[in-house]
Batch of 4 targets.
Target 1
Amino acid sequence: MKFSKVHIMQKERDPLNLAGLPLVEPPEDSWPQIRQTLLRQNQRQRFRRIAGASLAAAAALTLAIGLFIQQPAPQAEAVKTPPALDSLIVLSQQLENGIRSYRDEFGGLPTDALVYQVELEDLIAQVDDELSVRPDSTRLWSQRVNLLLDLSQLYENQLRRDYHRMASL
């Protein structure tokens, strides 16, 4: 079999004979699907942030009302806790549930925030120890609520950072 000069030059330019392969259409663009997925995730995160902020605002309002508006209790019910203490306990429970839902949904915090998380949780545990001795201490419950608010804020700040990173994509 003899090869012509043109055939040899063509072999040198296209040694694998790729020009002879049939044309194939490129795959479908996946960007619209990726965009929709990111938008849905952003909407969910925005909803959670709004819910967390609403919870914090409701907690602060409940605390303020409980501290500034104290109703006199009847003498027969002297063993009841004061309204401010009840408000602090309820607020503490709400904040704990919010933090638990953050952990369930998003997992742990990154290592740069983990130090603060552990420190806050340690302080909460110390307050809990004191509360086991004096469960009717308004000062201790208030301190616990403030620590839980700080911990909740730590999670919300991380969510905000994650949202900005995703939004910049």
Target 2
Amino acid sequence: MNLNLLPEMIVKIFFLIGVVALPIIIVWLNNRKKINETNQRTQIVLAAIEKNAETDVEDLLKKMAPQKTLLKEKLLTKLLWGGILTLLGLALTIFGCYLIAGRGNNNNPFTLFGALLLPVGIAFLINYYVGKKVLAKEIEAEEKKMATQA
């Protein structure tokens, strides 16, 4: 075996692991998680029925169902990510420009990554403000619904 080919083989192995094996493992783990959650719910419902035959199964399943995320929470998540990505993109761009000005080296990845993150962050912020304006009535209706349930 030629030792000069060893680094190339290692790169190919990591590439195969990252491109082929990792996505398959992620999907498999996600499916196992869903199956386990379903099995746990089933066991709880069966135990409740065994102890009390008059148990309302539909009501029990509604109580056990995972909470839906509210529109307001989704919008606040977009605001958070928009702020983080915008500031990170701005900081990387400024740092990259500083390196270009100081060293005269145009081959740094900071300006590229900053230039990619900045518009994504701005898009999240725009999405937040537009969503806040468009979904104002739905958010208000959700808040009233939550107030009546509590």
Target 3
Amino acid sequence: MKILVIGYGELAEEFAKVRSDFDFVGIKRSGCSQLANVNMVNCDYSLGLPEQVTKDDYDWIIFFPKTSGKSSDDYKIGYLSQMTAINDHFLSAKKIFISSTRIYSGYSNIIVDESTPPKPSDEQGEIIELYESEALKHGNNYVLRLGGLITNKSNFVKLVLDKQLFLDNKYINGIFISDVINLMVKIMQEGIGQQLINVIMPKYMKYSDFDSAFKGEPINAAVKSIHYNDAAKFKIKSIKEII
């Protein structure tokens, strides 16, 4: 299986590491990979996809949007600049577009799932909503909305608790890196019946469940999935397992 990853980063590198039977071509601004099954192409994808990439055939395309800053213009470039090119250049390839649970940032103290309409709270979130809409126009595309990514080296929840980076109570919407990879492998090898999936731990908790310093009702939404929520399929089912 040959996979093109646009916006190659930590998650893609871990994916290639655990699936050495897959061949990867990665587009990244700079840097390399030491993995034998990865061919890295250094370029800024927002300036256009290089011919050495577009002339080949791939079974799957994975797009990880990358932004150079936090402004709305940065988001437009990172998320939208190559959507037409990705869909037009690789007609026969199936595609996974990585999105974010930020799409629900306008909700507070409720449970949301894939049936809940997006409600972004800022222009950047509205750009992500447009990005998802463009991806879902094509029947062979998937959109995965990731919660906050947690790895063996990086655990944002533990950092918040240890440093008390804020004290407003929030639902903890996280996902462990290996569980994202397992879902992508399932999609590629078996398929899944839905185009849009919230990729989130199946058991949600609040910061106040760990520390009483976090006060009040959650100011965000608890993100759930109605399409992919079988706890038996997850390595890390709840944030409690890795705090």
Target 4
Amino acid sequence: MHRWLVAGLLTVALTACGPEKQTLPDCDLDVEKLTGDWVSLTGAGGGTDKPDKYARIRFHEEGGKRKAIYTAGQLAPNNPATNKYDYEYIEKTSLGDVMYSINMFPDKSPQRIERLRKDNRRLDVKFEGRIYVKVDVKRCALVLSDMYVTYVKGEETMDSNPAGTRTYLRANPNEPPLSFVHCDESRQIIPFATREVDWDKNPVSLNPKEGIYKGEPAFFHYVEKRFEGSKDEVDAELKKVGVKAEEGATYDFEIWAKDSPVKDLQKIAVVPDPEDDNRIPWIGEVVFDSAPVDGIFVEMHRYKTKDGKRELLGNACTVVWPEPERTAEEKAGDEGAKDGKK
């Protein structure tokens, strides 16, 4: 009798201490209603993850269409730049995720693309980019699969891009925002040691890997492209890109570094020089607070405001590799060498 009593009590005790039914956290994410900025996670060793800002995405609406700007990861080893791609919502799949797509040959006609599909023999030729997005309810996060489509002898093949499949969390609102502005003017900001530069004397710019130091100013000058045609045609192009001022317009710029806005270098007004054919001196003075091995991606977002509307003229960008901070003795030695002193 006692034996059965003990067994019964033990059964009750085990039932009371057994695993309880787990409840999932409230998650209101809907793949059909995605908005805002998201940052990927990557392995940090030891089974942990860390944010990787080089693979990030922004969901937004434009012209009544759902779109996404995606960076796809670091451009190359030891290069902190990112490419940015515009994707457009296509559909919700039978698996419950949604697909966004980008045409990798936007300048080619449908007939030309069809011909390329039939003639292509290489697996690395990317015809279309596709992002598949689903919700991880357990983490209340997004899971993105970064894929590309190619065609070999007309047959469709899909493979993974380098970023692959990752978990994405909402960008931390307490941290600086991340840039989603396309760089359409690569290497058109050049660092110099001084604000004033005499362009007629072929000035020597700072070496992006050796001439810039942590804690010392570098002056980034915007350098426009060369345009051909009559003076009126060239002037019209220079006004369009913001090299020459347009009547009734005002101008400003922002400097971004490490993918985030540089403090005190936002909405910096620039005034055209009437003694220089009304040209606009786009010059940003930057003092770097670090000297990372991978370098620093620097952007100059240039804006024009007219009739109350502020519009982006262009984003000029480059990469520099600041050296560690110099001592007073090193600075004096460098200045002496410039003056021809020993």
